[in-house]
Structure formats: structure tokens, C-alpha cells
């Protein structure tokens, strides 16, 4: 099983005291990576363009988006995009962020390298 032992770092607060980054930074054998609040690894998709997600339909069932609320606002390296399906999604350095349905527990990294186009999101 592709599982890294991660040491989750505390949530890094953005410049505003009430605003927090939508992702956490964790350490794995391959170095620092981004996770969601539950410790699940975040990924980027090579077919996406900055600020535009190419993952739709069946793709989103396998690669769930890191969803943003209507109130969420861009902060630092993080931004929010409006998807064509009406959902809002977090991006990091312009690239949309996803989890992987086959990652069963925090620390799993089974999505890294899938079809050569999915990669762990790294800070």
C-alpha cells in the first residue's frame, strides 16, 4: 500500500488572523506536501490550466475537488475558481486542488503519478 507516515504541521494562518489557508502542509518520505483539513493528500492535474479545471463528470467522482464556499476568498498563494459545474474550488499557485477517491486514510498517496498526469501538490 502506498502510505507515507506523515507528521501534520499546525494549520498555517494567513496574514489575516481570522483567515486560514485551505490546506495543511505535511511531511512525507518525498518531502513536504499539501493535505486537506482531514490530512488527505492533495493533487494537481497536468491537463488543468492556471485557474481552470479540466476534471469534470466522472473525473470528479474519482478526483473530488477541494471545495470552497461562497464566502471563501483568495489569500496568498490560494485562490478560488468557479467551475463550469457551478461548484467553487480552491487552487494553489493557480492550479486546482483535488483529493483521490482511492486514498483511504491520511498519508495515502496512491494518486501520485496516476496515468502520468496526477501529482502530489507540494508547497
UniProtKB/TrEMBL annotation:
Keywords from the named record: Lipoprotein, Signal
Kindly name one Pfam family recorded for this protein.
Lipoprotein_15
Q: Where is the signal peptide?
A: 1-20
What InterPro entries does this protein map onto? Lipoprotein_repeat, UCP029720
Q: Does this entry carry the keyword Hydrolase?
A: no
Record-linked PANTHER family? BLL4220 PROTEIN (PTHR39335)
Q: What's the protein called, per UniProt? A: Predicted lipoprotein with conserved Yx(FWY)xxD motif
Q: Give the taxonomic lineage as stored in the record.
A: Bacteria, Pseudomonadati, Pseudomonadota, Alphaproteobacteria, Rhodobacterales
Amino acid at each position: 500500500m502506498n502510505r507515507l507516515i506523515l507528521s501534520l504541521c499546525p494549520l498555517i494562518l494567513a496574514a489575516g488572523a481570522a483567515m486560514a489557508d485551505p490546506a495543511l502542509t505535511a511531511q512525507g518520505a518525498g518531502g513536504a506536501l499539501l493535505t486537506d483539513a482531514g490530512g488527505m493528500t492533495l493533487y494537481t492535474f497536468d491537463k488543468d490550466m492556471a485557474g481552470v479545471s479540466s476534471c469534470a463528470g466522472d473525473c470528479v467522482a474519482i478526483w473530488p475537488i477541494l471545495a470552497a464556499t461562497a464566502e471563501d476568498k483568495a489569500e496568498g498563494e490560494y485562490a478560488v475558481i468557479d467551475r463550469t459545474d457551478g461548484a467553487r474550488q480552491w487552487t494553489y499557485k493557480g492550479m486546482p486542488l483535488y483529493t483521490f477517491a482511492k486514498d483511504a486514510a491520511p498519508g495515502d498517496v496512491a494518486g501520485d503519478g496516476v496515468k502520468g498526469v496526477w501529482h502530489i501538490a507540494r508547497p
